[in-house]
UniProtKB/TrEMBL annotation:
A GO cellular component entry from the record: endomembrane system
Bilayer-spanning residue ranges: 193-216
Subcellular location: Endomembrane system; Membrane
Every GOLD domain range: 33-123
Record-given protein name: Cargo transport protein EMP24, putative
Superkingdom: Eukaryota
Topology class, membrane: Single-pass membrane protein; Single-pass type I membrane protein
Lineage: Eukaryota, Metazoa, Ecdysozoa, Arthropoda, Chelicerata
SMART domains: EMP24_GP25L
Organism (species): Parasteatoda tepidariorum (Common house spider)
Keyword list, A-Z: Developmental protein, Membrane, Signal, Transmembrane, Transmembrane helix
Assigned protein family: Belongs to the EMP24/GP25L family.
Pfam family, one: EMP24_GP25L
Entry-linked InterPro entries: Emp24-like, GOLD_dom, GOLD_dom_sf
Length: 219
C-alpha cells in the first residue's frame, strides 16, 4: 500500500518560514508494507522519526512485540536507510538529488499482529530561510550597523527552539500513547487471568466436594 504525501502542508515552499513537517499515525496490517512519499530537493535535510506505539494480536487486546521494519529509498530506488525490527528510530538524511523519496514500514515479519506506528517527517532547508528576506527593503542604516544580521540570527534561534519544543511535545505524545496502550493491555491480561483463576478454583472446589461425598457414600 502506497500513499503520496503531496498535501499543501508538507510540500516544500521556497519562501515558507516554517520547516515542512507532517505527522501521522497508521495501522500496518500483518504481512503488509505501507509506503509514503516525500518530495525534497538538494541541500534539504530529510528527517524521519517513527515509533511503534501499539501492537494488536488480531482483534484481541493481547500485547505483542512493538517492532517494525523501516526502509528509506532515493528517487532512483536506491536503499538509503534500513532498520530491522526496531520499536523506534530517528534518521536524518542530507538530500543530494531532487525527487520523491519513498519510506516504507514493513510488517511482513508479523503473521497476526497489527502494528500502530506514529511517524514524523520534517524537511529542513536553511537556504529557504535566507531567501525569505529578499522580499523586504531595509534602510541603509539598518544594513550598515549589522542590525539586520542580528535580527536574522535571533529569529533563526527562536525558530529552532520552537521546532525543538514541538518535536519534544510530539515525542511525549507518542510515548504517552504507547504507555497507555501497554497499561490497557496489562489490565486486560490481568482481568483474563483473574477470571481463569476463579474458574479453576471453582472447578477444583467442585471436584473436592464430589470426592468427599463419594468417600462418605462408600462408607
Amino acid at each position: 500500500v502506497c500513499y503520496v504525501l503531496f498535501l499543501p502542508l508538507i510540500i516544500a515552499q521556497k519562501k515558507s518560514f516554517d520547516g515542512v513537517e507532517s505527522e501521522m499515525t497508521i495501522n500496518v496490517r500483518p504481512g503488509f508494507v505501507d509506503c509514503f512519499y516525500q518530495r525534497a530537493k538538494p541541500q534539504d535535510i530529510l528527517e524521519i522519526e517513527y515509533q511503534v506505539i501499539d501492537s494488536i494480536f488480531s482483534d484481541m487486546n493481547v500485547n505483542q512485540e512493538l517492532d517494525i521494519n523501516f526502509q528509506l529509498f532515493s528517487p532512483q530506488g536506491k536503499e538509503l536507510i534500513s532498520d530491522y525490527k526496531k520499536s523506534d528510530a530517528n534518521h536524518r538524511h542530507e538530500v543530494k538529488e531532487a525527487g520523491d523519496y519513498k519510506f516504507c514500514f514493513d510488517n511482513r515479519h508479523s503473521l497476526l499482529s497489527v502494528k500502530t506506528v506514529y511517524f514524523d517527517v520534517y524537511i529542513d532547508n536553511e537556504s529557504a530561510d535566507d531567501d525569505q528576506w529578499d522580499d523586504y527593503d531595509f534602510s541603509p542604516d539598518l544594513l550598515f550597523n549589522d542590525t539586520l544580521d542580528q535580527i536574522k540570527t535571533s529569529i533563526a534561534k527562536v525558530k529552532e527552539y520552537l521546532n525543538e519544543v514541538k518535536h519534544h511535545q510530539d515525542q511525549l505524545k507518542a510515548i504517552e500513547s504507547r504507555d497507555r496502550n501497554l497499561q490497557e493491555h496489562n489490565f486486560t491480561r490481568v482481568n483474563h487471568f483473574s477470571i481463569l483463576i476463579i474458574i479453576v478454583m471453582m472447578v477444583v472446589g467442585a471436584v473436592q466436594v464430589v470426592l468427599v461425598r463419594s468417600l462418605f457414600e462408600e462408607n
